[in-house]
């Protein structure tokens, strides 16, 4: 912690956490600063009192510390963060009720592409929106150094519950918890704590004590074969995945409610986390696309929200680590799921470690070329949904949307979330346009679903049998 004078006031400022440093590293080396923008909207099909909604948003600003987060840069270029005590910025209103849906989407994507001023400036924008077909709500743009998807959903839920409490005289929602308290716990961990030393030993063992992983691409063997030829290295097992052109878009594929329910029922019945089922589907698809490769690695997102403080303090807490599995073709679908679950649990136990430090150490040990990796795709499963909210919220139609900021650091990033309207699953692919086409993404989604449903309909099938079937 360090004291700085900001606008004549002496403020307590804090270093960035590992999760924030990951994003700061991204924006530092990307010329397109909107790369950290998260754009989203929550809309309700009901008559809305926008004056009351504005009050609810201001109240949520007070309760949700990370919405009042600011950054500053020290003379040595070190970035610090601090909170402002109040947020009284104008909350504008835009009426799009006479527009076409596609035109509204393009407009809001345009807003999402506008970067924030990085220092001594608000890192979010909230606009009240009136849409066609009687839907009303809010658009939120936030900087990823201040919020992740869990924070965004929590903010929406808080605004909605506050609005309903004010409008219908319902119980006020439980208070949010302290962002600073959660931050201090993270910083105490990083200060050479015993827990950090234990995690460091685990990740160094993963780097140095195992045979080299194999790169598996979502488009098949072409990238790796080409780079082997260019580098005159027929045994190369990693591949360069970065690009000089980060232009990106988002494609969303909606799995209908009934098959979504089938996947969730299978997980509940067999006590398998949904993220493990999704990882199984994705790693088997990558195996299929890469000559039935047994050794597959995927970047797995860890939300790091296990405690009540972590769940209710907002901020950004996501860490990414590789989840590597080597699964033989004679392994049954269920046994493969258990292998993935065991690996995921090991990863979770050590997920507080700095992912940038892990990546840099692995790169040095494996003598990577700039931008090389073993993972071609990242996966996030977001279980948090507005349907889990309190009974004070009336049963009314909702819809939500995530808007592309136009650029991406990763070639392909799959986020699986529950739709607010029916709790079905949406598969949201953020993709770099130079790395994958719409057709190739649809092809990937098609095979992913085939693996999932061939597996859950008979979990005693072997992985080899499923690969042959699809």
Q: Can you walk me through this structure?
A:
By secondary structure, this protein is α+β, with helices and mostly antiparallel strands. It contains 14 helices and 17 strands. The chain starts with a strand and ends with a helix. The model has no long low-confidence stretch (mean pLDDT 93).
Properties at a glance:
single chain; 470 residues; alpha+beta; Chloramphenicol Acetyltransferase; 2 domains; 5-stranded mixed sheet; 39% helix
Number of strands: 17
CATH topology of the largest domain: Chloramphenicol Acetyltransferase
Strand order of the largest sheet: 10-17-16-14-11-12
Number of domains: 2
What value does the average pLDDT take?
93
The fraction of residues assigned to DSSP E strands is 15-25%
User: Oligomer, anyone?
Assistant: single chain
Helix content: 25-40%
Instruction: Tell me the name of the CATH homologous superfamily of the largest domain.
Output: Nonribosomal peptide synthetase, condensation domain
Low-confidence spans: none
How many distinct helices?
14
Cα-based radius of gyration, to the nearest Å: 23 Å
CATH class assignment of the largest domain: Alpha Beta
End-to-end separation: 55 Å
Structural class: alpha+beta
CATH architecture of the largest domain: 2-Layer Sandwich
Overall form: globular
Largest sheet: 6 strands, mixed
């Amino acid at each position: 912690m360090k004291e700085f004078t900001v606008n004549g006031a002496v403020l307590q400022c804090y270093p960035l956490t590992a999760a924030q440093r990951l994003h700061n590293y991204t924006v530092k080396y990307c010329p397109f600063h909107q790369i950290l923008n998260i754009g989203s909207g929550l809309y309700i099909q009901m008559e809305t009192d926008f004056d009351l909604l504005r009050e609810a948003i201001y109240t949520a600003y007070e309760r949700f510390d990370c919405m009042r987060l600011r950054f500053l840069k020290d003379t040595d270029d070190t970035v610090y963060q601090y909170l402002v005590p109040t947020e009284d910025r104008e909350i504008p209103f835009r009426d799009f009720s006479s527009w076409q849906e596609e035109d509204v989407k393009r407009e809001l994507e345009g807003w999402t592409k506008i970067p924030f001023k990085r220092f001594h400036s608000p890192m979010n924008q909230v606009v009240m929106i009136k849409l066609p077909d009687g839907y009303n709500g809010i658009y939120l743009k936030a900087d990823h150094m201040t919020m992740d998807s869990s924070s965004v959903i929590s903010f929406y839920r808080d605004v909605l519950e506050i609005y309903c409490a004010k409008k219908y005289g319902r119980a006020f929602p439980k208070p949010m918890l302290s962002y600073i308290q959660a931050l201090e716990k993270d910083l105490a961990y990083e200060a050479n704590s015993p827990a950090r030393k234990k995690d460091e030993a685990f990740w160094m063992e993963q780097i140095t004590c195992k045979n080299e992983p194999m790169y598996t691409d979502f488009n098949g063997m072409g990238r790796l074969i080409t780079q082997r030829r260019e580098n005159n290295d027929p045994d190369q097992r990693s591949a360069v995945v970065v690009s000089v052109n980060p232009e990106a878009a988002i494609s969303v594929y909606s799995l209908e409610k009934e098959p979504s329910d089938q996947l969730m029922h299978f997980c509940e019945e067999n006590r398998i986390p949904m993220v493990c089922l999704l990882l199984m589907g994705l790693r088997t698809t990558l195996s299929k696309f890469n000559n039935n490769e047994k050794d597959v690695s995927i970047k797995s997102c860890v939300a790091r929200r296990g405690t009540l403080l972590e769940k209710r303090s907002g901020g950004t807490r996501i860490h990414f680590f590789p989840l590597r599995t080597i699964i033989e073709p004679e392994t049954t679908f269920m046994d493969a799921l258990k292998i993935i679950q065991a690996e995921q649990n090991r990863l979770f136990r050590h997920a507080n470690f700095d992912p940038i430090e892990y990546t840099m150490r692995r790169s040095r040990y494996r003598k990577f070329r700039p931008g090389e990796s073993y993972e071609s795709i990242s996966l996030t499963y977001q279980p948090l949904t507005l349907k889990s909210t309190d009974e004070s919220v009336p049963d009314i139609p909702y819809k939500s949307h995530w808007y592309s900021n136009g650029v991406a650091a990763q070639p392909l990033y799959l986020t699986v979330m529950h739709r607010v309207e029916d709790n079905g699953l949406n598969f949201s692919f953020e993709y770099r346009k130079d790395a994958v086409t719409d057709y190739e993404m649809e092809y990937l989604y098609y095979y992913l679903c085939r693996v999932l449903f061939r597996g859950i309909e008979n979990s005693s099938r072997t992985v080899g049998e499923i690969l042959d079937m699809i």
